[in-house]
Write a structure and sequence with these properties.
Elements (H helix, E strand, L loop, with lengths): L1 H8 L9 E9 L2 H9 L3 E4 L8 H10 L2 E7 L6 H10 L3 E4 L5 H8 L8 H12 L3 E7 L14 E5 L2 E6 L1 H13 L4 E6 L7 H5 L7 E6 L7 E5 L1
Parallel strand pairs: 1-2, 1-3, 3-4, 8-9
Antiparallel strand pairs: 5-6, 5-10, 6-7, 8-10
Helix pairs in contact: 3-4, 5-6
Length: about 230
C-alpha cells in the first residue's frame, strides 16, 4: 500500500496530476528523506539547521502534483516560513506544526491522498497526539553550569533536557522515560551515531519493542518516537 501510494504521488506516477492532496516535509539526511518518501511524502532538504526559506517552501509546494498540500515543517524554526508560504500559494495549503522529524514521520502515516488538506491535517494532528518524541545529540556547546562539555551526549524528552554525559547512559535514560506507557519505540540513527542497533536493543526496558531506521540526519545521533 505504501509503494502504491508513493507511485501515485510521485511526479512520474500514473495519475499524479489528479491526486487531491499531497504533503511536503522539511528534513535532513538521505535516510530521513527516504523514510518520508516511502510514505508518499515529498521532501525539501532543510540543511543541518532545518531552516529553508519561504521561497524554497513555496517552490516545494508548487512542485507537488496535487491540488492541495499539507506541510510538515519538522522544526519550530520553520513554522513562520511555512505559514507564509501557505498564504502565498495558489493551492489550498495547511501547516501541521510538527516540532521534529520523528513527529513528522508519525504524522505522515496519516496522509490521505484522496482527502482534502484540511481532512489530512486533522488526521495528522490526531496521530501526533498518540506520539511522544525525544532524542540524543552531541552537545554543540559547553553547559554554563558544567553539566556537560562539547561533544558529550545530551538527551531530550520533548523539548526538555533530561540526561547528559556518556552516550550509552544518556540514551538509556531517555529510552526509559519514553518507554513509560509505550508499546513501541522508533529509533532513527543519525550521522556518526556511536552505538549500533544491537547495543541499543540491550538498553531497552522489558516489554517495549523497538524498530530501527537509518536516517543519516546531522546534529542528532538518535531521534526517538514512542507510541
Amino acid at each position: 500500500q505504501v509503494e502504491e501510494r508513493t507511485e501515485r504521488l510521485s511526479p512520474n506516477g500514473h495519475g499524479a496530476t489528479t491526486r487531491r492532496c499531497g504533503a511536503l516535509a522539511v528534513c535532513a539526511g538521505p535516510g530521513m528523506a527516504a523514510l518520508f518518501e516511502g510514505l508518499g511524502v515529498h521532501t525539501l532538504d532543510g540543511g543541518a539547521t532545518l531552516n529553508p526559506s519561504t521561497f524554497e517552501l513555496l517552490a516545494g509546494i508548487h512542485d507537488i502534483p496535487a491540488e492541495e498540500v499539507v506541510v510538515l515543517p519538522n522544526s519550530p524554526n520553520v513554522f513562520m516560513a511555512a505559514e507564509r508560504a501557505a498564504e502565498l500559494s495558489d493551492k489550498e495549503v495547511r501547516v501541521v506544526p510538527t516540532r521534529n522529524q520523528q513527529a513528522g514521520l508519525a504524522a505522515a502515516i496519516a496522509l490521505l491522498p484522496d482527502g482534502g488538506a484540511e481532512e489530512t491535517a486533522t488526521a495528522m494532528r490526531a496521530a501526533l497526539e498518540r506520539v511522544r518524541t525525544g532524542g540524543v545529540a552531541p552537545a554543540a556547546r559547553q553547559d554554563p553550569g558544567g553539566r556537560f562539555a562539547v561533544g558529550d551526549a545530551v538527551g531530550y524528552v520533548g523539548d526538555e533536557l533530561v540526561a547528559w554525559g556518556d552516550p550509552e547512559a544518556t540514551l538509556r535514560d531517555v529510552l526509559a522515560q519514553l518507554s513509560d506507557g509505550a508499546e513501541l519505540i522508533t529509533c532513527i540513527a543519525g550521522d556518526g551515531a556511536p552505538l549500533d542497533a544491537l547495543a541499543i536493543d540491550a538498553l531497552m526496558p522489558d516489554g517495549v519493542e523497538i524498530e530501527h531506521s537509518a536516517g543519516g540526519q546531522p546534529s542528532w545521533w538518535w531521534l526517538l518516537a514512542a507510541e
